[in-house]
């Protein structure tokens, strides 16, 4: 299954589900990354961390570890 970490610059994707447990999962969901939400990947840092995305009309930077918990629709 593809995760947000695997997405290239300029791609539009949609969240299928969030993995993880407890406070980490809650924090990701509080940032707006919820099931069915569209994401546009704007930039990726030279070493791959963080990933800058546009979601719900605002820009957000997500760490690689958190991006691995966001599963995407095919």
From TrEMBL:
Domain Ferrous iron transporter FeoA-like: 2-74
SUPFAM superfamilies registered for this protein in UniProt: C-terminal domain of transcriptional repressors
Molecular function as annotated in GO: transition metal ion binding
InterPro entries: Fe-transptr_FeoA-like, FeoA, FeoA_core_dom, Transcriptional_repressor_C
SMART domains: FeoA
Iron found in the keyword field: yes
This protein's UniProt keywords: Iron
Protein name: Ferrous iron transport protein A
Species whose genome carries this gene: Lachnobacterium bovis DSM 14045
């Amino acid at each position: 299954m593809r995760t947000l970490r695997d997405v290239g610059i300029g791609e539009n994707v949609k969240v299928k589900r969030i993995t993880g447990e407890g406070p980490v999962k809650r924090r990701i969901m509080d940032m707006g990354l919820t099931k069915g939400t569209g994401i546009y990947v704007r930039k990726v840092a030279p070493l791959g961390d963080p990933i800058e995305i546009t979601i719900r009309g605002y820009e957000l930077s997500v760490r690689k570890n958190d991006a691995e918990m966001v599963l995407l629709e095919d």
